[in-house]
Amino acid sequence: MALKVCCRLTRSFVRVLENRNGFLTGTSALKSLNSAGCLQYKHAVAKQEHSYSWRSLCTASKPSAAVTYEELKKLLVAKSGVVIDVREPWELREFGNIPGTINVPLGQVNGALQLEPEEFKEKYGGDMPSTTENIVFTCLAGMRSIKALDAALSLGYSNAQHYPGGWQDWAKHEILQTKD
Fold first, then answer.
1. Residues 7, 38, 58, 139: which is the catalytic one?
2. Which residues in 92-130 are b (16+ Cβ under 10 Å) and which e?
């Protein structure tokens, strides 16, 4: 029942977008069933000289995009993915950073994930993730990392996640561990 409600809400959302934002309709709207049987709408959007990628508006079958402190710690120790901190450089200097992360400010994430690997490494000091590699975005408290996650997913990074607790949660856990 919840899945049917999700699908109805998705269809309503698509209609609102079509009416408000001038989304292309008719033959440019592609409807298909995903693995959960939920109707997906995908749109090619063209405004001015920008073109946007195809995006699904149904999230019923997507895995959780959030990681916990423990999962992030394991990923960093095993080096089984890339952790990108999307805060501004001055924030890292003022508050600190999670060891092993690469700093790519939020305003640069979209462009950074489209660079050649050599350019990415030169500009940001770390290896560029592939579109199938585990990527976790983090920030101060989880607000900007969700925006970075959306950008990565729209660029085809299928294993992108975010750490909703951000630096604040990380620091809290690390300080508690050093007191023990």
1. 139
2. beeeebbeebbbbbbeebbebbeeeeeebeeebebebbe
CA distances from 41 to 17, 29, 87, 141 (A): 11, 7, 33, 32
Q: Are strands 160-162 and 135-138 parallel, antiparallel or unpaired?
A: parallel
Rounded to whole angstroms, the Cα distance separating 88 from 57 reads 30
**H helices of 22-116, where?**
69-78, 89-95, 106-112
pLDDT digits (tens, 9 = 90+) for 87-104: 999 999 999 999 999 999
Provide mean pLDDT across the span 56-61. 40
Contact between 126 and 133 (Cβ < 8 Å) = no
Between CA 34 and CA 42 the distance in angstroms is: 12
Q: pTM for the full model? A: 0.65
* Spatial separation of the C-alpha atoms in residues 87 and 145, rounded to whole Å: 9
To the query of whether residue 139 is one of the catalytic residues in this protein, the response is yes
Residue 127 DSSP symbol: P
